[in-house]
Every structure is written in C-alpha cells, then in structure tokens.
Design a protein that fits this description.
The chain is mainly α. The chain is built from eight helices and two strands, in the order H-H-H-H-H-H-H-H-E-E.
Length: 232
Amino acid sequence: MAESRLSKSFYVPIVKAVITLLLLWGVGAILKELPMIKNLIINKISLSASAIVEMAITLLMVVVLMNFARDFGHQLRRVLPRFPQSSVIFVSLVYIIVIVILYNAFSPLGHIVFKESFWIYQIGFLAVALVPLWIGGVTLYRNTDKLVDLITTGVDKATGEMTQMGRYGEKGTCSNCGALNVPEARFCFQCGAPLKSPAAREAAPNMCSMCGAKNEPDARFCIECGAGLPAS
C-alpha cells in the first residue's frame, strides 16, 4: 500500500508549534528584561523573579511540545500506514527532549529543595527519561524490518524514476517546450507539438547537404562544416 500524499494538514502541527514556541520564547525574553521583574527581590524565597518567569514560560513550552507530539504523531500514522510505530518513536523522542528542558529549567529550584541531596533530583529525572527512551528504543528495534522496507521502497521508487528518465532521455523530450513525454507519444502533452518516435529519430538523422555528415534530428547546424541544416 503506497503512502498517502502529504497534505496541508501534515504541516499544520509543525507550523503551529514553531510559531507558538517562538512567541513564548520572545515573551519570556522580554519579561525577564523588564526592570520591574529583573530588579524584583522576594525575600521569602531564594529564586529571582526572572527565574520564576523562565520556569513558567518553560512549562508553557512543554505543553506546546506535548500537544505537537500528539498531533504530529497522528499525521505520521496517516502518511506512513506501513510503519504506524513511527508515531511512537517520534513521541518518545519529543518526550525525552521535554524532560531535558524541564531538568535544566527547574535545576535552580531543585538546588533549593534538595540542597546537598541534589543527586535525588538528578536521579529522578534520569529515571523519568529512561521510560520514553526504553519505549522508543524497543519499538524501533522490534520494527526495524518495517523501517528498512520503508527506506528501500523510497530508494526503489527514486531509482525507477531515474530509470524512466534514462529510458526516455532526449528521445521523448519535446523540441518545442522541453516537456518529457512517453516514447510512444505522437504529440506533446504540454504544447501539442508533433513528436517523432525514438525509432524515427534514430532512423532519420539530419544529413548535411554540404558535406554529408550525419547530425542529430534537431540539429540546426552541421557538426562537421557548420552549414545550416533544414528543420527536421
């Protein structure tokens, strides 16, 4: 079964996620530079206002990324029906990225809460990260044959198109508009100009009346003496 053609809906989750993440990043960068936040000191906690803003923006970004993973995973299952497990692998990869982002963003809070036992914070995030890593890795390993089949099918398709191009070559190319036609075509599908079949082209070279040299059917000047040739 051939993969579905990519439609606009395939790209919508990507565009939405990129735009939203860029907006959140810009808002966070502006908020952290505002004097009322940059110079704000809260005596009861050890975190700066800028750090709190960064953690809040990070949480919003994580929500966006998780929604993107869900929506784009659905699209992958639709366009790759022979490899539906690709959505599981993709979602697992996004979750690993999310965990790393959260770890870095909340490290200041982790130092405050755990203090000398910060290793608990590190081990906790490591254990959480191992879950999607295990799920994605096992899924990829168990479906390697489907992935290889998908890749080789793409290669075979591209090779087949190149073979078709090589088979037609200049023999099926319209001399008027350059469109590539099938060898048996008598008229160009693009502009309607008459075409010569490959056999006719090979059997009827453009002979030079001055020196008798054989030229290509579409040649306008002789390759031997440079004399003008009649239109083929």
